[in-house]
Amino acid sequence: MTLKHRCARANLIGRKNIATAFMVAIACQMVFIGPVAARGASVYTIAKVKIDARADNAVLAKKRALKEGPLQALKLIFKRLAPFRAYDRMATLTLAEAEGVVDGFAVRSERNSSTRYLALLDYNFSRKKLQALLVKKGVPFFDQRSRKQVLMPVFRQADNQSAGNKDRKQWWRAWRTIDFKHALTDTRLYQAKQSDHELWQKISSGARQQYNALRKLYAASKLILVDAQFNGERDRLILRIYGQDHVGRIDYSQEIPLKEGGLAKNYEAVAQIAFGIIEGRWREPQITGDVVAVSAPANDLNEAASSERLIHETVFLRVAFRGLRDWQQIKQRLQRIPGVQKMQVNSLSPRGADVRLKYPGGIDRLRSQLAAYRFALDQGGKDVVLRSLK
What are the chain's domains? Predict the structure, then answer.
């Protein structure tokens, strides 16, 4: 049963008794608390989703928040798993699709006024259903976490000591709003000490040996320093990401215009941008598949001119392996590739198997995805031969 159906009763009761509806909405919310808490850290959980909804009264504001929250969370997990080049596909995501892949939610905190509801929510997604949705959208993705790396928000000291300390605290608080527990990179957030900031002053001036000293101090072979400073006119923040992650060395700078809403919100926005860049460095090289064009909705008057549909085509493969154990591992890995359906083994020998499966887009689409899962396809006479690269 979807989130929409579970909460429909609260909507009906609300017309008769607002107080009763409020209690039903709470009960509806509690139904979903268990799944998130029980499953631990997973890239298929989005935590700390900020919800802010307004309506004529508190009950309607909360109902609106709970209705819109899944789509907001779906867009966040889309950005976590999908490549930058697919971000425009987020505009096609619908509330019904979000409700169909959400597997539960939990409330971290909430508060409300007579017309407003604010909350921090955690959403858990069904891995299988979300992967199926991404395949349907023609979007390649990557969901394997990196090994541990350390991230330290730092701050170059301003001329005004008190102002510098204030900005430093706000910059640190901005990073505390990010969901590191479920991130695609296993990132540990360290708070910089005064001595660390002094080292950063030297590092930012070109003394790389000081960076190595800092890395040794924290026993962090992969250490990333992230700094934000005002430009001369104080209308932009200069973001700098420096250090080394699991991709390699990084020294990246970008100027980001300040927006309305206060410095704290601007720092949060810049922190999100910075972490998106760091996650993208890990994710993008792993995704070799193209973003596939899909057909327009059925009610689109230009559907006849729209791009190709992703049809589940039958694919025949000759799978090569070294022995029974190798075959079992290859079979399990092949079945986990998103989009692979109805896999059948037609014949099995000590060194190979004839396999039939269904895949959206057929053999050409499958070929473009296999490298990310450490497989390769070769032409062996009349057969298409799949080999493991592990």
Answer: 3-136 (3.10.129), 149-286 (3.90.950), 311-388 (3.30.70)
